Amino acid sequence: MRFEGTSVGQVMRANGGAGPGFDALRLILALSIFCSHSYFTSQGDDGSLWETPLRPLLMTMVPMFFGLSGFLVTGSALRTQSLRVFMTFRVLRILPALVAEVTLSALILGPLLTAVSWHDYFSSRQFYEYFGNIIGRIRYVLPGMFLDNPMAGFVNINLWTLKPEFFCYVLMAAMIVTRVINRRKLVILVVAILLAVSLVTNVFHNISEDNFGHNPYMPYVIVLYFMLGVVAFHWRDFIPVDSRLFAVAAIAAYALMRHPGYAFVATIPTMYCMLYLSMLKFPRLRLVESGDYSYGVYLYGFPIQQTLVHLFPIFREWWPLLFVIAAPTTLSFAAFSWHFIEKPTLGLKRFVIRKAPIEKRQTATISTFEAWRSAGL
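RESULT FIELD:
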């Protein structure tokens, strides 16, 4: 039985297979994370901000990113029906900009700003280990970098999401190989079990968060959101786009996230809010339409903020000034990354599609425009 009225699936079909708000929502989430990091890089993170009414927003920004990613990546997996094509697409989307950011930080930013000699810098084990970020061996520190900053020592704290992101792609690859990705009821059963186990476990041992929002289990939480995105894509024709339901879901998500221990209960209303916003037609902005800058904002934002705080002490006195100055700088880097690194690399997809099996080639070709419109997914 389908819902009466407009569903998520209907909105997507009316917009060429993509939600009209996908691009704008990704950029909004990236800039929201960037805004919160303007505060943290300027003032440090003593946990106090996590106890304010902003707590629910801080708690949901990265999970919503992963939920949206799960939704979009599932569409890519179902379109290609090929492990080789899917994994190649993922590498083309993630790796080039990541290699560029890690290399720039280690070879340009580090030598310019390090507090140690170049000999000590380039001979340090930390320098060589930093390149492990490219393959998911997460390292935040370069020799002598940002030692006196409020967020001392961190070069790019955003890299923490790489490991769970890579894990999500491994899960998706496994579902493609086993054909589980094509079995809608099995997918929802597996995710429902994971959610139920999480809820029960959280009753006896709070794995959703600690009192300050610093959560060693957060990688698991955001992987769960990714899987909820997988479920949402399968059931997109059954999910209504309803402003009243959105209002209820937003209130419920905020209330649940306001208190420690309810993050898993808030997953469903939070995911619905993400889907609803993705289906909205945001005002036409040249910034949104000229490219997908969300990944670049997320990658380059933190090192740029740390650099400004390191060079200009005034940014430690008033964090909104840091946001005002760092935002256009970061968007410039993101735009350069998109137009000269990410977009040209994504253009290689056409060669991968041409090599797809004959029986799958037609579907992949028809879906190319839709896939690229969804940020190269």
